[in-house]
Amino acid sequence: MSASPEHVSESTIRSESEGDQYLTFLLAGEEYGVSILRVQEIKGWDSATPLPNMPDYILGVINLRGTVVPVIELRKRFGLESIPFGPETVVIVVKVLGEDGKERTMSIVADAVSEVYDVADADLQPAPDFGGTINSTSVTGLATIDEKMIILLDIDDLMSADIPTLDESAD
């Protein structure tokens, strides 16, 4: 009888510790995912205040309840063709750990939000070498869910590589 409770507790521990939930979104027909634990909120596209001397993929900043949040257009960041923003365009606000270990709030623009998926560690495949489009360290791995390939992103690496830090203390 004791084998049964041990088996149940092992599988419960396994299911809780061997996978993560990912919020997925669409970008140029492909589905990408970020850890749901990093997502602060999702909002529709409104506008951003442009800043001078920023890379073209930084659309500017938004004021999110008193916090200045940079807005990154992932299509441009990934070297994809830009399209006009529409009613399904979303801004996904995420918490990012910088190289200095400090947490900061940033946001990404995506074509549309898709689903939240549970992805078991066993279902992850390593990221191939993408060449120059996406730095392979920005990709956690690939997962096939419901016969769709999902590219899982390392949001910390993606949002810290080549993205200038806005110094909020500068006057």
Q: Kindly state the percentage of residues in helix.
A: 10-25%
Instruction: For the record, give the distance between the C-alpha atoms at the N and C termini, rounded to a whole number.
Output: 69 Å
**SSE run:** HEEEEEHEEEEEEH
Mean pLDDT: 82
Whole-number radius of gyration?
18 Å
The CATH architecture would be Beta Barrel
Indicate how many domains the architecture comprises: 1
- According to CATH, the homologous superfamily is CheA-289, Domain 4
* Oligomer state of the chains in this structure: single chain
Strand order of the largest sheet: 8-1-2-11-10-9
Query: Low-confidence stretches at least 5 residues in length (pLDDT < 50)?
Result: 1-17
Annotated CATH topology: OB fold (Dihydrolipoamide Acetyltransferase, E2P)
The tally of helices reads 3
Identify the overall geometry.
globular
Query: Given this structure, which CATH class is correct?
Result: Mainly Beta
What's the total number of strands? 11
| Main sheet properties | 6 strands, mixed
What share of residues are in beta strands? 35-45%
